[in-house]
Amino acid sequence: QVQLLESGGGLVQAGGSLRLSCAASGSIxxxxxxxxxxxxxxxxxxxxxxxxxLGRGITTYADSVKGRFTISRAGNxxxxxxxxxxxxxxxxxxxxxxxxxxxxxQVTVSS
Length: 111
Hints:
Blueprint: E1 2-7, E2 10-13, E3 18-26, E4 33-39, E5 46-52, E6 58-61, E7 69-74, E8 77-82, E9 91-97, E10 100-101, E11 105-110
Parallel strand pairs: 2-11
Antiparallel strand pairs: 1-3, 3-8, 4-5, 4-9, 5-6, 7-8, 9-10, 9-11
C-alpha cells in the first residue's frame, strides 16, 4: 500500500510561484507514474501534470499550465513547480499514484 503526503500549498498573488511536494512511502514500486490533479469548487478533478518513469521521466501537462508548471521527481518525492500563477489556478491540488490519492493541499491565487 502506498501513502502520499503533500505539502507546499498556500496563498500567493497572481504572478507568483509555489512549489508543491508529494512524498510517497510504502509500496512505491507501483508509483513509476505519478501525477498532480486539481479540483476547483464546483468543478471536476482535472489532470495538471504527469511524470512517467523514474529519473527525469516523460512528462505531460494540461494545456492550461504548459510553460508555467514543471513536474519533476527526486527519489520518492514528486514536485510541482508552479510559476506565473493565475487566479484560475486556485484549487485543491492532489498527488496521485495508481489508485492512491494524497489528502490535497490548497492553492489560492489572489488577483
